Amino acid sequence: xxxxxxxxxxxxxxxxxxxxxxxxxxxxxxxxxxxxxxxxxxxxxxxxxxxxxxxxxxxxxxxxxxxxxxxxxxxxxxxxxxxxxxxxxxxxxx
Length: 94
Known about the structure:
Elements: H1 4-55
């Protein structure tokens, strides 16, 4: 059997959790409204930019820049002398 203080503690916990869930629901609703407001503002900014771009679609003359590629003469590389191998010496056989 449960005692009265245990049942009272359980009831208080239930009330606390209920209040917590309500607060979380309000916070989620506010966050959702903020996201929607941001998305709407972003869409409006993009629409304004597109409208401004559409007004000034006049083709602008662009000059083609031709870059001359200068090839450098290749220098001959000398072969490196590989005399002694580097690294750990091999184990001595017994």
